[in-house]
Amino acid sequence: MTQAPGKKRGSLITLEGIEGAGKSTVARWVCDWLGRHGIRATLTREPGGTALAERVRQIVLERGEEQLSAATETLLMFAARGIHVENLIRPALDRGDWVVCDRFTDATRAYQGGGRGVDPALIESLASQVHGGLQPDCTLLLDLPVPVGLERARSRQAGALDRFESEAQAFFERVRAAYLALAGREPGRIHVIDASRPLEAVARQVEAVLERLPIPGGAVRVR
Ligand code: Z5A
Question: Is residue 123 classed as helix, strand or coil in its secondary structure?
């Protein structure tokens, strides 16, 4: 890391969940909440987040003529992540900014690992090569029944379905189960939010988690 001596590294907050869980909506809400608490936050997403990583996103999401195996899809997710971490996430954290990221490596664990059956050992080996030493400080897992998420996502859909949106419900059930298993293994980092509730109720649950994070200035802020 190239962090200046005495300067505190920012925190990485990630949002996870199945399609339509409300990650993008809640990610914007988290940034606004941090801003109101005097914290400069960068909002970003995966796959993508930088110009070059967005090009990889297009390759991995677009449904074209050519097939992508589960292993190739995994490699592309980590290629985009490597570009993103190197060019956006690490520099922002080193400046002392906070980063709010719509999906990160837990998405690979859940989608490629749980959904597609990719060997977890491959995923963990790539994670350690690509961003070893960098883990989210806090992950908000927006959990809801698959039909509710798919209904939300599809009611908002315009245009052709991408490679994930065209998957069957059973795929998303495996992804959801994998996310919940991850949360069970890392309860200190991954906070399960009931995302089936109205947005105001979701925001209250998220706020309760954010209030326990170490806010610059030293103390843990409690209302
Ligand atoms: N992927 C992967 O396989 N492996 C990886 O490592 C990574 C990603 C990083 C990215 O697609 C795809 O890449 C993703 C996994 C895969 N595919 N899937 N599925 P994306 O970024 O285009 O799609 P997404 O991440 O699934 O996001 P989304 O469909 O846009 O959903 P969302 O961000 O969770 O939800 P939203 O846009 O905030 O909300 C959806 C709608 O619901 C919207 O109209 C909201 O106003 C509404 N909403 C939100 N919250 C509520 C509540 N609480 N009540 C009622 N209505 C609500």
Answer: helix
7 CA to centre of ligand 1 in angstroms: 34
Query: How far is it, in rounded angstroms, from Cα 68 to Cα 76?
Result: 10
Angle between helices 23-36 and 199-210 (to 10 degrees): 50
Q: Ligand 1 center to residue 22 CA distance, Å?
A: 6
DSSP sequence for 13-44: EEEEESTTSSHHHHHHHHHHHHHHTT--EEEE
Full 3-state SS string of 58-100: HHHHCCCCCCCCHHHHHHHHHHHHHHHHHHHHHHHHHHCCEEE
Q: Each residue of 141-196: pLDDT tens digit?
A: 999 999 999 999 888 767 778 889 889 999 999 999 999 999 999 999 999 999 99
Please answer whether residues 12 and 166 qualify as being in contact, where contact means their C-beta atoms are separated by less than 8 angstroms: no
User: What pTM was estimated for this model as a whole?
Assistant: 0.94
Q: How far apart are CA 115 and CA 177, in angstroms?
A: 9
The answer to whether the CB of 20 is under 6 A from ligand 1 is: yes
Whether the Cβ atoms of residue 39 and residue 13 lie closer than 8 Å to each other: no
| Alpha carbon distance 27, 14 (integer Å) | 8
Q: What angle do CA 184, 192, 112 make, to 5 degrees?
A: 65
Ordered by where they begin, the domains of the chain are 12-210 (3.40.50.300)
Give the distance from CA 23 to its chain's centroid.
Answer: 8
